[in-house]
Description:
Low-confidence stretches: 1-56
Radius of gyration: 22 Å
Amino acid sequence: VHGDRIKFMESKESEEVKTPLTETTKPEDPQASERKAGEVAIDSASKFRTMEMLSRFEKEMKEATKSRLFWDTQPVPRKGDSTLTETPGPIERKTVDDVRKVPYQLPDAFEWSDVDVADDAQLLEVYTLLAENYVEDDDSMFRFDYSTDFLRWALTCPGVYKDWIIGVRVTKSRKLVGFITGVPVHVVVQKEKIKMAEINFLCVHKRLRAQRLAPVLIKEVTRRVNLRNIWQAIYTAGVTLPTPISEARYHHRSLNPRKLIDVGFSSLGHNQTMSRVVKLYKVPEELTIPELRPMKPKDVAGIHDLLNGYLEKFDVHFRFTHEDIKHWFTPRKDVIYTYVVEREKKITDLLSFYCLPSTILKHPKHKVLRAAYSFYNVATTVPLTELINNGLILASKEEFDVYNALDIMDNGPVFKELKFNPGDGYLHYYLYNWRIPGPGLEPSMIGTVLL
């Protein structure tokens, strides 16, 4: 799954911040300077409530982890495995001749169905399944709302195989009750170029979880990927599975604190007032980079060269073709927003974020929480902090309520100055059938954003 499915938790000033891949660090003394005092006020004024937004994918995967038999049959690294000290490479080697030629058996009353997301009616079925079963918060206050436009963007990328968009239907009624997807991606892992599948949107109807459809869906998409002579996959999840190559943390920047507090997404800190919080998070009205403009079709080649060159320094990153750039970055209202700086007919800077709103349930006034998610940013002629700050301004102009970003790539150092607050959940990155020696990678060495 992807980085959108996270837990928005309170930021705990008094606790140490720990990750398995970094040393424990203590928060700085809030009284050290006027600046630090301001940061504590910001942190206090923006305590995010626990949304517990766990996708059905993660719930299904939690069920799958209860069965050692399932993971023992999968070519994934395991903690304590002596092979983790070996050279990088595939864990298992097979050929297409070794791959099962017929689909895996489903329980009685269910059947496989290839889903055509180019068809409006079938896309609406996917939207409905995900909206009602994919992501939820424990208090039934918020629900992720992947729009049909977003789903079509995510699942119609260049080179996509239609038989990798997999559904499970009830045989009699034809109702769509299960779903999983794969899209082809070119991944570079520590300089090794590998064609992989990006796995996403695993969802089973909440009334059918006892049928244990999730492991069958995973095996079936794996079978279909293998039949294309592709043997590796990349995916993310908020839960710990065998075995993450890295873990990243989401940070959140309030853009409309009054609304976030009103709907219960965040809350006022001790001795804070609404007017002070609104002032703290107010962004400038005008851009500070006047040359920053929306991407145009003629920018594809320039973005291609700029982005691929930038990503080369990360241990794990995508390699984009010109067709990929056109698909993933061409602006689409309420889906993807891309801006560039062009100097002397050359693209020098890139800013992008995508839109993933949540439905606000049971609120008398507000119905939608608009969230922007940082995508890819490259700064060569301006500081990255200034570039992302202009992203906040643009997102505010588009009436987003919050701006989210992972601490991957070069994002981490900008968070404090731009008043981002850390979430309490972590996003784990995984590679299927590929071994990376050692304890794992720092998030700053990850150069991939998965939807």
